[in-house]
Write a structure and sequence with these properties.
With about 325 residues, the chain is an alpha/beta fold. It is about 30% helix and about 20% strand.
Length: about 325
C-alpha cells in the first residue's frame, strides 16, 4: 500500500451525506487516479490506495461511497527480494507468490491494514487463490484472512474469488467478487484466464444470438475473449457456492468490443448479479463503454466538412 498523496484539487464537498440512490451502480474497480465525480456514481469502489489521497477518499465517503483499498494477500509485486517469496516463477503480472504463513509477510500485511483503517471503508483481498496448490499454504492463507478481519475490525472485506476457502471463513468476509465471470483477458500463455473448466455444475442460459464464439481453447492468442462452455459452467458453479454461504456477490468482466460487453451484461443479468466490465488495466472509472455510433446525418456532415466535397475555394 503506497503512501496517500494528494493528486488533484477536490470537487466541492457536500454539507451533508446524501442517502444512497437506489439507482446507484453497485461496484466499480478503478486502478487509475482522480475521476472522483464518476466514482461517486457507485455504492462501492475498489482503488489502489497509493493513487488517492486521504482527502479524496474522504470526499467519496462523504458522498455515501464505500471505498475499498486493494490488498494482495498471496502475491508480492514489489519486485524486491524478500524472505517471504516462494520459488514459483513470476506470474503474468510480474508478481511473485508468497508464503502466507511467513511472519514477516503477516507483519507487512498488518502494517498496510492499519494504515488503511484510518482512511478506507474496507479492503479488497486479492490473490487468495494463489494458496490453493499446497495444504500448508491454504492453512496459512486462512489464518492470514482471519488476521486481516481482526486488524480491520468491522470494515467491509471483499475477496476476489477464493471460493474454495470461504466455507472455512464463515463470518470473516462480507462479499465475493467473481473475476472473469463471463469474459476474460489472457496472455498468450493463457495464464490470466481465471477459470477452471470441467466443473460438474451446468451453466444457465446460453445466448446463441449475442454470444461470441466460446468453443476456442482456454489457451491461445493474447487478448479479450468470452469463456468457453466449461468455463461458463465453472463460474456459474462459483456463484452458486457463494450464494449458499449467504455472502454478497459481484462479478467482474473484461471486454474491448460491444459484442463482448453485451454478452457479459446479459449473462450477468440472467443470474441476477451485478458485473463491472472494464479493460485489463482497470483504468476506466465507469468501465468499458462502446464508442457512440454516428448517425447517417453526422457522417454526411463530416464528409461535407472534410475537404473532399467542400465548396470553399471554388
Amino acid at each position: 500500500m503506497g503512501r496517500l498523496t494528494r493528486t488533484s484539487p477536490l470537487p466541492p464537498v457536500p454539507s451533508s451525506v446524501p442517502e444512497r440512490s437506489r439507482h446507484r451502480h453497485a461496484l466499480a474497480l478503478y486502478y487509475g487516479q482522480d475521476a472522483l465525480p464518476l466514482l461517486a456514481r457507485y455504492q462501492r469502489v475498489v482503488v489502489q490506495p497509493g493513487h488517492f489521497s486521504a482527502a479524496q477518499v474522504t470526499w467519496l465517503r462523504q458522498r455515501g461511497v464505500q471505498v475499498l483499498a486493494y490488498l494482495s494477500l498471496g502475491e508480492d509485486g514489489s519486485g524486491q527480494p524478500q524472505d517471504w517469496l516462494t520459488d514459483e516463477p513470476p506470474t503474468v503480472w510480474k508478481t511473485r507468490l508468497v508464503n502466507a504463513s511467513h511472519p514477516a509477510w503477516r507483519a507487512h500485511i498488518q502494517a498496510q491494514v492499519m494504515r488503511g483503517n484510518a482512511v478506507f471503508s474496507g479492503f479488497f483481498l486479492d490473490t487468495l487463490d494463489a494458496a490453493t496448490r499446497d495444504p500448508r499454504q491454504v492453512r496459512g492463507m486462512l489464518k492470514l484472512v482471519r488476521l486481516v478481519r481482526q486488524w480491520a475490525g468491522p470494515r467491509y472485506l471483499l475477496t476476489n474469488r477464493g471460493v474454495g476457502l470461504l466455507h472455512r471463513l464463515r463470518g470473516t468476509v462480507n462479499g465475493v467478487l467473481i473475476e472473469s465471470f463471463s469474459t476474460t483477458w489472457q496472455a498468450s500463455s493463457g495464464q490470466f484466464s481465471a477459470s477452471q473448466p470441467g466443473a460438474d455444475q451446468p451453466g444457465a442460459n446460453q445466448f446463441s444470438a449475442d454470444q461470441p464464439r466460446t468453443d476456442q481453447p482456454s489457451t491461445g492468442p493474447e487478448g479479450y475473449r468470452a469463456y468457453t462452455k466449461p468455463e461458463l459452467e465453472y463460474t456459474s458453479h462459483l456463484l452458486e457456492q457463494v450464494r449458499r454461504l449467504g455472502l454478497e456477490v459481484y462479478a467482474l468482466d473484461y471486454a474491448d468490443t460491444p459484442q463482448l460487453r453485451r454478452f457479459a451484461l446479459r449473462r450477468a443479468a440472467s443470474f441476477g448479479v451485478s458485473t463491472f466490465i472494464s479493460n485489463r488495466e482497470l483504468s476506466l472509472p465507469t468501465g468499458y463503454t462502446p464508442p457512440p455510433k454516428r448517425s447517417g446525418a453526422a457522417r454526411q456532415n463530416t464528409t461535407a466538412q472534410g475537404g473532399g466535397h467542400s465548396s470553399l475555394g471554388r
